[in-house]
Write a structure and sequence with these properties.
Radius of gyration: 21 Å
Number of domains: 2
Order of helices and strands: HEEEEEEHHEEEEEEHEEEHH
Mean pLDDT: 94
CATH architecture of the largest domain: Alpha-Beta Complex
């Protein structure tokens, strides 16, 4: 699928990071790069990374990384330099001080350069797997890392395992009658003033388009007609690939929250969305690092 020209790339999906996947097979690559002082390392602790400034990551030399990390090869910077990830579990104490502190991907991702954002989302996605999937799911044996941190092999049963990605759809719904209306929902776990697009995981044997129609109907009561692909980006909470769509309701009056996962649904005018995007509205919209924010903002810009 190709996103329409009017859709700007989601903040965590911008091209920039060269993953240099062909290099991963080189034996001893990570150890060799750790011994090279020119290598840059992104340290991840839980879901946070150190910042050199509000809009840039703090990269460290391998020798400056604390002991005990899980390591992986991220790829190459646009200047050709090697990039590694050093991953640690979450901790109440910072591993080291950073000029602009430590921040999570949700809060910092949208402000970063394409290379930094790509490295952050890759390191966080891969890092969760490195920490949480040490044992073979088939036989329980401790696995051996391979492919420079991108695979695991079980020494007992011989199975090879790779990082898992779970596809999920996320949908902004436009009105059947009024092009200046957008339907959003408020999750039961959020505050009553927070609204976003409708989202859910793709089920086994289900297409993306079928998942869109099912999730929208389940959560909002709305049946949709035209479904248009808008873009995608990784979202490592814990391991999702969010695939964004814009869909048109067939009957606006059918909108009704399911009362379980979704506590409320509401049609918003273009002006209301504009005020909320500017931080002046009565509701809170998703943060700028999310694809939900991009779907809403692009819809608003196209209607303006």
């Amino acid at each position: 699928m190709t996103a329409p020209d009017s859709m700007s790339p989601p903040p965590l999906a911008r091209p920039g990071l060269d993953r240099a996947a062909g290099e991963r097979l080189a034996p001893g690559l990570v150890d060799a790069l750790k011994a090279d002082a020119a290598t840059r390392v992104l340290v991840i602790a839980g879901d946070s990374a150190p910042l050199a400034a509000p809009d840039s990551l703090l990269w460290r030399a391998p020798a400056d990384v604390p002991a005990g990390a899980e390591w992986a090869f991220l790829g190459r910077h646009d200047d050709g330099g090697a990039l590694l990830a050093a991953v640690f579990p979450s901790s109440d104490d910072e591993l080291f001080s950073a000029p602009a502190g430590w921040a999570g991907l949700r809060s910092a991702g949208a402000a970063l350069s394409a290379v930094d954002a790509g490295a952050f989302v890759a390191a966080l996605s891969l890092g969760r797997w490195l920490l949480d999937a040490r044992f073979c799911p088939a036989c329980g044996t401790l696995t051996i890392l391979g492919d420079s941190g991108w695979s695991r092999r079980c020494p007992h049963c011989g199975r090879q395992h790779f990082p898992r990605t779970d596809p999920a759809v996320i949908v902004a719904i436009t009105s059947a009658q009024d092009p200046d209306l957008l339907l959003l929902g408020s999750n039961a776990l959020w505050g009553a003033d927070r609204f976003s697009c409708f989202a859910g995981f793709v089920e086994a044997g289900e297409s993306l388009e079928a998942a869109v129609r099912r999730e929208v109907t389940e959560e909002s009561g709305v049946t949709v007609g035209v479904v248009s692909y808008r873009g995608s980006q990784a979202w490592p909470y814990p391991r999702s690939l969010m695939v964004g769509f814009l869909a048109t309701a067939l009957d606006d009056a059918a909108a009704e929250a399911d009362g379980d996962e979704i506590a409320a649904v509401r049609w918003f005018t273009r002006d209301e969305i504009g005020r909320a995007l500017a931080g002046r509205g009565e509701v809170t919209l998703p943060g700028p690092a999310s694809i939900a924010h991009r779907l809403i903002a692009d819809w608003h810009a196209e209607q303006a």
